[in-house]
Amino acid sequence: MMQGSRGFSGPLPFVCEAENHMSDMNPYQREEQKQRLRRNMIVSEDPELDTGEEAEEKPFRPARGRRKFGRLKIVLIVLCVIAALAGAWHYYQTHHRYSGYTQVWSKQIPSTEGSYTGYRKFGSNVLRYTKDGASYIDGNGDVVWSISYQMKAPICSVNGDFAAIADQQGNDIYICDTTKNHGKATTLLPIMRVSISAYGVVAALTEDSTSSYVSFFKNDGSDLDWGIKTVMSGNGYMLDAALSPDGTQVMISDVHVNSGQLGNRIVFYNFSEYGKSYPDRLVGGFDEFGSHLCPRVRFFSDRRAAAFAGGQIAFFSMENVTSPELIQMVDVKDEIKAVAASDRYAAVITADGTGEYPNRLLIFNTNGRKIADTGISCSWQEMDIADDYIILRNSDSCEIIGTNGKLRFDGTFDTPVSMITKGKKPGTLLLTGGNTVSEIKLR
Q: Distance between CA atoms of 401 and 94, rounded to whole angstroms?
């Protein structure tokens, strides 16, 4: 028993010694000794479970920072790659020169008895009009709707999804959109020109032996209680009239004689609520053209317009609809041969005074800033603007120039062509001619 007691009592002296030693300490010293013993006894195998000063000193935060920085670098690299691809695609779309084309499809449109056939870009597709009727053709070459009439000399005005087809020197105007024919308007005097707004309001320029008139109609053909009259012996003879997209503003170029001198004036009328307080709705007039005749006026939008005269182009702002402002007058040294305008650009073909090319193409934005000036040597009959394409066309060929002045395509076709416009898909064109509508893919 004594041996067993001696074997069991081995550690007791240490415990007793520690207890005796701690009993000699004050309470603060005892608590400090307990904490020291705990730190010596508790050892964690998982460093993420460590607590206390040693755990806090381990570098967790720098590791997380490096991971976040790595992810940020990856995101920035991806964004740079996307930006580079987008830039390359934009450059390709604006600078690539196509060398040929393949035909995607071609369709025959039923012929009419009349010999004249005209085509206009209408909505995103094509309007075909003849002396006997008109039809709307979609992007697949199918006829959506058609109307019949009899005209001696059909003329057409298109604005977005609305179109007006009038009998020049006649009295009938047919008003339609991409869904149907809305109505027919009739004038008392012979029609000289016609213009339509983006909402279907029609302005018809008519005349008799002493005066010129502008009559207005709703899209169903009924009369609007608006009207403009100029007397040739007084305030002049109207050369051209244009209607703003919203149908409330009218821009007119008229010729007048003052003290035996011929002059050209650009005048603006406003038929909205804002123009009620102005006599005859006349809100602005400009005589800057002097003796230069101005045969064409155009609205780009409800807030921008231009007048094209011999040797000059005037750009106007209607930010204040009752106080039009001339914001840019561009002098054109050489003869103007053709003009075209869209909602974003104005294009002018002039003679090339340097003799380097037969002609030059000048392109302007709606503020009158020239954005391209390039020489052209192709033959052409008509010029049109389709988005960012300037299309120069003759009966069997075309040349397409981007609004940056870069040549995009030139080629000839196997069949006669009377209209070319951009197709719905990138790099495609819609061609019309005679009784055929086709789509080609540029390559």
A: 10
- Binning pLDDT at 50, 70 and 90, where does residue 256 land? confident
Q: Which residue from 288, 300, 209, 290 is spatially nearest to 251, judged by alpha carbons?
A: 300
Give the containing element (helix H, strand E) for 78: helix 60-95
Phi, psi of 33 (to 5 degrees): -65, -40
Q: State the amino acid at position 140 in one-letter form.
A: N
Q: Which tokens in the block code for residue 296?
A: 């064409």
* CA dihedral of residues 352, 355, 357, 360 (deg, nearest 10): -10
181 SS3 class: strand
pLDDT recorded at residue 158: 95
Q: What is the CATH number of domain 332-412?
A: 2.40.10.360
**Alpha-carbon gap, residue 184 to 176, rounded angstroms:** 9
pLDDT of residue 93 exceeding 70, the answer is no
**Do residues 127 and 419 lie in contact, with contact meaning Cβ atoms separated by under 8 Å?**
no
* Least reliable range by pLDDT among 188-192, 212-216, 256-260, 291-295: 256-260
What secondary structure does DSSP assign to 324-338, as a single string?
-EEEEEEE--SPEEE
How far is residue 95's CA from residue 406's CA, in Å, rounded to a whole number?
6
**Whole-number Å distance between alpha carbons of 123 and 407:** 26
Q: Is the pTM of this model over 0.85?
A: no
| Ramachandran category for residue 217: left, alpha or beta (phi over 0 → left; psi -120 to 50 → alpha) | beta
Closest CA to 341 of 157, 85, 208, 117: 157
By the 8 A CB rule, do 202 and 173 touch?
Answer: yes
Residues 6 or more apart from 401 whose CB is under 8 A from it? 361, 372, 374, 376, 389, 390, 392, 407, 408
Main-chain phi, psi angles of 89, to 5 degrees: -65, -40
